[in-house]
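Lab meeting, item 3. Inverse folding demo.
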């Protein structure tokens, strides 16, 4: 097949990990006879430096007409002055919104070889296989933001959190479709004891499941206790659906089940075929430019790209198997290695590509 892939390296370790994922996609194309055309564009701090804007029109134009978008990370100390009016993160939010990517899938499946990197006891991690569906284009991220001067110069800031029935319904339906393909269990996370948006969320989730997915078992969980349960009994959850900010926070927490932020990929999807694929981690300014960043999250994001935007399920599974095999053979980056010898970004990428050349057991395609 032929596919046009737009690559947005961004800032910090973004360029290092997208280069790794790009190399893996090239290896997939060569091995399985596909033609992928890559086009790189600016986003985030790099785009601000070059054009003054975090999401230049040329980037959005290219992304809109591509088959898929692969993104590294944006942001960093250079652009993080709280008084700045233009920020790298605005570019990321804007591209998600402009492409209508409201469902952000963040799978969390700890791998045996990385269990040592997790602060959680290994026996709690066996069999953990979560799919967090984070709402991505609404909520407090996108509501009106303002500052006003109160009496006596007491400045007040506010961020409005808004959700509509339609916004909640579509992401809950997405999560339900995934739940049906998995164990049929869905946990909806909210803060309905305090927030009006959460009470609407809970109402809509209940109704969607009752009316449209009777085969799904829905459980509601408050976000504060969920943060605890996620670490105490992660095996008891399967598909988790939640609003934008709760999903952001819970998935960085969930990365500790896998052992590192550097292992968690994501797929941002909407109604169309186009998707945006990015690791859940940030630009990691503390390690940027050192060649030590873990590329596996970005490579696993490329696998999700193959699966969700290109329909290449077998190739996606082979990339996932190759990453698993690289971990199995002890190819651990510094975030995973502990006292063992660590390898750098390039060696980890090479290990995955080496595994990709070996026979891959193609799983049964799921419909
Ligand atoms: P971060 O995710 O960048 O880093 C947190 C910690 O995890 C750091 O110690 C970092 O070294 C480590 N880490 C992250 N990815 C790693 C990898 N692949 N391999 C090894 N270690 C890794 O979070 P932060 O430090 O809070 O944020 C830094 C910047 O990144 C901020 O500007 C933030 O806005 C931005 N950010 C961007 C995205 C994105 O573009 N999707 C996501 C999160 C944060
Ligand atoms: C993520 C990041 C972003 C978010 C930031 C950088 C805007 O933390 O993708 O998880 O909060 O969505
Ligand atoms: Mn985040």
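The presenter then showed the designed sequence:
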């Amino acid at each position: 097949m032929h596919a046009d892939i737009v690559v947005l390296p961004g800032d910090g370790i973004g360029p290092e990990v997208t280069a790794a994922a790009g190399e893996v996609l090239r290896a997939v194309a060569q091995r399985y006879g596909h033609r992928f055309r890559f086009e790189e564009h600016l986003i985030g701090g790099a785009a601000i430096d070059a054009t003054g804007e975090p999401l230049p029109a040329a980037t959005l134009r290219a992304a809109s007409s591509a088959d898929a978008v692969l993104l590294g990370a944006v942001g960093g100390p250079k652009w993080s002055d709280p008084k700045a009016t233009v920020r790298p993160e605005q570019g990321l939010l804007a591209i998600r919104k402009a492409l209508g990517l409201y469902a952000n899938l963040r799978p969390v499946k700890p791998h045996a070889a990385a269990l040592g990197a997790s602060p959680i006891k290994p026996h709690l991690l066996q069999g953990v296989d979560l799919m967090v569906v984070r709402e991505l284009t609404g909520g407090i991220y996108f509501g009106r933001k303002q500052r006003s001067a109160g009496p006596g110069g007491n400045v007040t800031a506010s961020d409005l959190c808004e959700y509509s029935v339609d916004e909640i319904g579509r992401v809950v339906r997405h999560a339900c479709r995934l739940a049906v393909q998995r164990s049929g269990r869905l946990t909806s996370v909210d803060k309905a004891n305090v927030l009006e948006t959460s009470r609407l969320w809970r109402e809509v989730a209940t109704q969607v499941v009752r009316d449209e997915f009777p085969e799904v078992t829905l459980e509601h969980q408050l976000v504060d206790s969920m943060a605890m349960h996620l670490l105490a009994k992660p095996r008891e959850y399967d598909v988790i659906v939640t609003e934008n900010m709760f999903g952001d926070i819970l998935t960085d927490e969930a990365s500790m089940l896998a052992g590192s932020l550097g292992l968690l990929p994501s797929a941002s999807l909407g109604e169309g075929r186009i998707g945006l694929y990015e690791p859940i981690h940030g630009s990691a300014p503390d390690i940027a430019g050192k060649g030590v960043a873990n590329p596996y999250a970005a490579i696993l994001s490329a696998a999700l790209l193959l699966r969700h935007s290109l329909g290449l399920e077998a190739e996606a599974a082979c990339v996932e198997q190759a990453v698993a095999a690289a971990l199995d053979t002890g190819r651990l980056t510094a975030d995973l290695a502990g006292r063992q010898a660590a390898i750098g970004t390039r060696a980890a990428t090479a290990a995955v590509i080496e595994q990709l050349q070996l026979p891959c057991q193609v799983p049964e395609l799921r419909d």
